[in-house]
Every structure is written in C-alpha cells, then in structure tokens.
Amino acid sequence: MLHRTILLVLLAFCLVMGTTAVRAEPAAPLKTAFIYQGRLLEDGKPATGVYDFLFKLVGSETGQDVLGQVSLEDVIVQDGTFLVELDFGAVFDGRAAWLDIGVRAGESGGSYEPLTPRQAMLATPYANYAGIAPWDGLQGVPPTFVDGFDDDTLAGLTCGAGQIAKWSGTAWVCSEDAVGTGGGG
C-alpha cells in the first residue's frame, strides 16, 4: 500500500510538472549600441564637469553625409574621461565611417564646438555587422574548399602505415617517422 501511495504521488508530481513547464524564450537579438570612452581636455588640462555631446556618424573623413546622430546631454566628465553608450541603429554595413564629435558646457544651450580630427570607426561596432557570413559572400576561398568541406590532402600524398608527411626542404614526402631516444645535445 505504501509503495502504491508513493507511486501515485510521484506520478501526480510528474504530471503537474509536465503541464506547467515553461517554454524557453529565444535569446534577445543583439543590439546595435556600443560603448565609447573618450578624453576631453579644456585649455590643455583634463576637463571635469557636466557636458553635452553631439555624436554624428559620417560616411567620409571630411564630408557631411550623416549616417546617424546621437545627442547626449549632461554627460559627466571626470578628470578628462567620459563613457557613453552610442546607438546609431543598424548602419554598420561594411562601409567606412567616422565619428564627428561636438561638445558644449552642460548648462549651455549654445552651439557645439567640434572636436578634431574625426575618428575612424574600427572593428568593434562592425562586429554586429559580422553576425553571419554567407558562404557565397566569402572571398579568397581555395577552389577545393568551395563545396564547404576541407577535404584536401597534403600535396596529394597518401602515406602508408607507419609513415608521415614530412617536409624535405623542397617538397612534402612520405617517410618513416624517425623516433629518437631522447637526450639533449
């Protein structure tokens, strides 16, 4: 009787757990924001205070083709250093881009003073763009790898039992593996 009761309780527990199982949600998609850390000098000395920043992502080193813009007010700058999160959206598509930065005192409503020179955007923001690499978009793929499998053999060699491929100084050859006895020389 005790075994039957334990079995019924265990069966009921499994039934309840099976009907209340929560489906796992897929991971959230990767966001397009990235962290930018900068250094701000005022009259040649590290700035400290509250500043407004205007970040423009532009498509050339000197032109005005704005790809995206982020305005951040009341950014705290301490000992010349500030840290902000920038999100221009999904604009990184492999083209070259530069960051054009303007700054003004936080309590000011005036115009932004441009910081020069513009900064070239490097690999990190582009990492979002490289989330996938379609096979037909890859360049420089060896002809024998076009099918997606690296089934090449070294110099077309088929070495016998007990042999390994070795470099002779001019070509790859099959030869016996010389096993030494150890010891330093």
What does this structure look like?
With 185 residues, the protein is mainly beta. It has a domain at 34-129: Sandwich (Immunoglobulin-like), CATH 2.60.40. The protein is built from two helices and ten strands. The strands form four sheets. The protein has a four-stranded antiparallel β-sheet with strand order 5-4-7-8, with no helix packed on it. The mean pLDDT is 79.
What are the main properties of this structure?
mainly beta; Immunoglobulin-like; 4-stranded antiparallel sheet; two-stranded antiparallel ribbon; elongated
Total beta-strand segments: 10
Order of helices and strands: HEEEEEEEEHEE
Counting copies of identical and different chains, the oligomeric state is single chain
The number of distinct helices, counting runs of at least 4 residues, comes to: 2
The percent range for helix content is 10-25%
Poorly predicted spans: none
- The computed structural class is mainly beta
Taken from the alpha-carbon principal axes, the silhouette is elongated
CATH class of the domain at 34-129: Mainly Beta
Q: Tell me what the CATH architecture of the domain at 34-129 is.
A: Sandwich
Beta-strand percent range: 25-35%
The average pLDDT score comes to 79
Taking all Cα atoms into account, the compactness measure Rg is 31 Å
Strand order of the largest sheet: 5-4-7-8
> What is the CATH third-level topology name of the domain at 34-129?
Immunoglobulin-like
Distance between the termini: 80 Å
**Largest sheet data:** 4 strands, antiparallel
